[in-house]
Amino acid sequence: MLYKQTMIIPHDDPRLSWHGHVSLEQTEEYTRPWRIPFAQKALFHVDLAQRASTQAGIRLAIISDTRALSGKLLRADDNQKLDLYVNRELFGTVDLAAQDSFAFNNIPEGEKLLELWLPQRGDFALQQLEIEEGASLAPYHDERPRWITYGSSITHCREAASPSFTWPAIVARAYDFNHVNLGFGGHDHLDALIACEMRDMPADYISFGAGINICGGSSMNARTFGSSVIGFARIIREKHPTTPMAIMSPIYCKGYDESGKTNLVEMTLPDYRQAVHDAVEALKSCGDENVFYVDGLELLSHDMALFTVDEVHPTAEGYKKMGENFLQLVAPRLFGEQA
User: Fold this and answer.
1) Domains, the chain, ranges and CATH?
2) Where do the H-state alpha helices sit in 201-303?
């Protein structure tokens, strides 16, 4: 189908709505969304900051009657995909494949909500969008309930089939939530700055997981881990005193769960699970009535090991299973019966 001439929309046009991000890095050339405060990135460990520059869970939204939507970006990384949703329904997915542009055509007529789900892996920096000449364009203000979730690569979900099929995205779409994904591959070490970030963000629901990166990196022992889980939760509680909060322990990891091996601080992965459980019980015993424990084995257990890539990270199908299990076993406790 032939379209009218296109109209270029600069990357910093105020009618472009970014969602699921924490901050924006804007230069004359591009806009890049971040999952930490970009202006303060020097305060974060350099590797954590790198993970935070990737766009898991971030969406770019507009309201428009255009039938074509395209864009230019700084050269994409390999294995990146971009999902387009039209009025909350998946319209199509493009494989960026190290390209510097993308295009969607034959979009349905009429004014609608267009949401680009940005790649959950690699880097994405927008230079411009293009819509049909004369098409309408307005920002989208997302006023749906907001859920913030924090975790490791298991929450980052690099191996998901496409950006809207990470397990947090599957859950958020089922409940029609505005969600923020603070999963940082390899860097779920209960950084106090991340707790402060979550404390300072508006949220209707909160969840976080801990244990797998700390076990693998031997970064906390029996003395420090449980108290760090409690401290992380208490920082968040400074501004979210009664917000429903789920605290999750690690999913099944064959290398640790079946070998029974200890790490350099003489803890096993089941030890970390127990410590998360005990930390939650301590919080409850001191008056926190809106926190509960989630055993990671509820989300991905030993009988689902075939859904892992490397005996640690779920496959694309494994992330779908995690999303389904979260919806069935965790969401009713955290969100209530709203789906």
Assistant:
1) 6-132 (2.60.120.260), 146-334 (3.40.50.1110)
2) 212-217, 225-237, 254-257, 269-285, 296-299
Cα 134 to Cα 113, 130, 131, distances in angstroms: 17, 11, 8
Q: Residues 52, 35: contact at Cβ < 8 Å?
A: yes
Could you give the 3-state DSSP secondary structure of residue 37? coil
| One-character DSSP codes across 91-132 | EEEEE-TT-SEEEE--PPSSSEEEEEEPPSSS---EEEEEEE
Q: Decide the pairing of beta strands 101-104 and 126-132.
A: unpaired
What are 243-255's pLDDT values in tens digits?
Answer: 999 999 999 998 8
At position 231, the amino acid (one-letter code) is G
* pLDDT tens-digit map of 61-110: 999 999 999 999 987 677 899 999 999 999 999 999 878 999 999 999 99
Which residues pair with residue 31 across a beta bridge? 26, 126
